[in-house]
Amino acid sequence: MHFEKEVGESLTYKFAQAAGEMRAQGREIISLGLGEPDFKTPDYVVEATIQALQNGFTHYSATQGWPELRKLIAEDCSRSYGADYTLNDVIVTPGIKSAVYFSLAAILEPNDEIILISPYYVSYPAMVKLAEPTAKIVSVTLNRDFTLDQDQLARAFSPRTKAILINTPNNPTGMVLSREEVELVVRLAAEYNSYIISDEVYEKLVYSACRHTSFGLYPEIRDRLIICNGYSKSHAMTGWRLGYAIGAHDVIAKMNKLQQHINTNTCTFVQVGACSIYKNEPVHIQPYVDELEKRISYFNSELNKLPYITAVRPKAGFFCFVDISAVGVDSNTFCADLLKKTGIASTPGIAFGPEWDDHVRFSIAVPMNTLQRAVGLLNNYRYGA
Ligand SMILES: Cc1ncc(COP(=O)(O)O)c(C=O)c1O
Q: Does 171 contact ligand 1 (Cβ within 6 A)?
């Protein structure tokens, strides 16, 4: 593999790091770069994990994942999807990213085609190439209002399409595929016998006017479906490195072989502690989603008042992906200038696909008063002035 070409630096970290360095030099930074929930991991998870440590769950454990946790995940998904998953259909991984990567590595073979929807999560192309360097990425570009071009999607499928990797609710657009769009993907994947790798990390962060449709609801594709999910965003557990994949048994078995050789197992006491997630009501989630919706209403409408930004209103998650084509510079140049002049860290659109170099992503996972300060600065900002 041509490492330098295929595995570039993650642009989401590039500007976050630059912002960190400026902050260390005493500059006030408004960090709208990374998407990390701005609340604490629920106490019951912390307490159950401390207990697990004190009870000696500090050794190697089953490579596929702690059996009780896998059983709880299988039961929860079976209830949600009307399926009959068992613990053997689940693998627990160090973060959702690992679940996605292992799915790709288990599925892709030389010269396979894989469909990505652009804009895509920043790490997907590198993950595909690391999993199978000869794989061909077929990109389907969303319309400018982030709706799916259904004809383009249908044309992207071919007999060589091994898989489609799809993320709904979506980072960076905040869009949620409609039931009709999900069903189109299901129909095409079934027709071409392709796998669906569905990254549903934002499924619990959907605003009130919208509903998430999971690919798990469709029995006709269950033997070709891998759902990747976890607690990083819904339970503010980004630093715990915990995720899972559930789905097609043969793929999960291959992923387990990868895990045996690479991770051995996901941190044992973290998995034991995480069982508490299924034994407590997630009462923190709805108030947080309500708060995110309040922030997005405010931020999105303020952004649209600026002469240099056009912003589609997101339906879920942490991000506003905005059009800066009126500025007339590329997204890296814009983000660098914005950081230098205002101290606002953002992420260049090109990180999410070459077609999006006239977009910028802002995170709203910061308190309302931080967004208000950002809006004040954006009001006074002009590129080049
Ligand atoms: C679409 C998507 N998938 C996966 C991840 C990473 O999840 P984790 O931190 O659990 O690996 C993110 C985080 O930003 C994401 O946006």
A: yes
The model's confidence at residue 385, banded by pLDDT at 50, 70 and 90, is: confident
Task: Please check whether residue 166 is in contact with residue 117, taking contact to mean a CB–CB distance below 8 angstroms.
Answer: yes
Cα 310–Cα 316–Cα 317 angle in degrees, nearest 5: 95
**Residue type at position 291:** E
pLDDT exceeds 80 at position 9: no
Contact 275, 66 (CB under 8 A): yes
Which distant-in-sequence residues (6+ apart) come within 8 Å of 384 by Cβ? 337
pLDDT at 212: 96
Q: Which domains does the chain have, with CATH numbers?
A: 3-40+284-380 (3.90.1150.10), 43-278 (3.40.640.10)
85: tokens are 């998953």
Is the C-beta atom of 199 inside 6 A of ligand 1?
Answer: yes
Mean pLDDT for 324-333 is 96
Taking phi first (over 0 means left), then psi (-120 to 50 degrees means alpha), and beta for anything else, what does residue 174 get? left
For residues 344 and 378, the answer to whether their CB atoms sit within 8 Å is: yes
pLDDT band at 209 (very low <50, low <70, confident <90, very high): confident
- Atom 14 of ligand 1 has which residue's CA nearest to it? 35
The predicted structure's pLDDT at residue 15: 78
What is the arithmetic mean of pLDDT over 61-77?
A: 98
Task: Quote the CA–CA distance of 368 and 366 in Å, as a whole number.
Answer: 7
Closest CA relative to residue 33, chosen from 52, 17, 49: 17
Give the 3-state secondary structure of residue 92. strand
Q: At residue 356, what is the residue type? A: W
| Pocket lining: 174 vs ligand 1, CB cutoff 6 Å | no
Q: Give the type of residue at 370.
A: T
- 150-205: per-residue pLDDT in tens? 999 999 999 999 999 999 999 999 999 999 999 999 999 999 999 999 999 999 99
Ligand 1 contacts CB of residue 204 (under 6 A) = no
Structure token digits, residue 179? 């039931």
Q: CB of 352 within 8 A of CB of 122? A: yes
How large is the C-alpha radius of gyration of the chain? 21
Output the CA 156–ligand 1 centroid distance in Å.
25
Q: Tokens standing for 189?
A: 């994947």
